[in-house]
């Protein structure tokens, strides 16, 4: 699953938990916050920035 997010959108999005920056993991189709250790799914091209929907990353 490959996900795409426009660069301008990625620059303004932030992790809802830590307020830190997000990076795109195209292979996994997720936005990852290294500060909080959470990965947020991208569904149908739309980032789902809900802490309840995020998964913990190692």
Automatic annotation (TrEMBL):
One of its GO terms (cellular component) is cytosol. SUPFAM superfamilies: Trm112p-like. Signal peptide: none annotated. PANTHER family: PROTEIN PREY, MITOCHONDRIAL, ZGC:162634. Belongs to the UPF0434 family. This is UPF0434 protein EKD16_04630.
């Amino acid at each position: 699953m490959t996900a795409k997010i426009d660069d301008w959108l990625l620059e303004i999005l932030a992790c809802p938990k830590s307020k830190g920056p997000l990076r795109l993991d195209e292979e996994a189709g997720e936005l990852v916050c290294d500060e909080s250790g959470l990965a947020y799914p991208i569904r149908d091209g739309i980032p789902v920035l809900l802490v309840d929907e995020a998964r913990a990353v190692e």
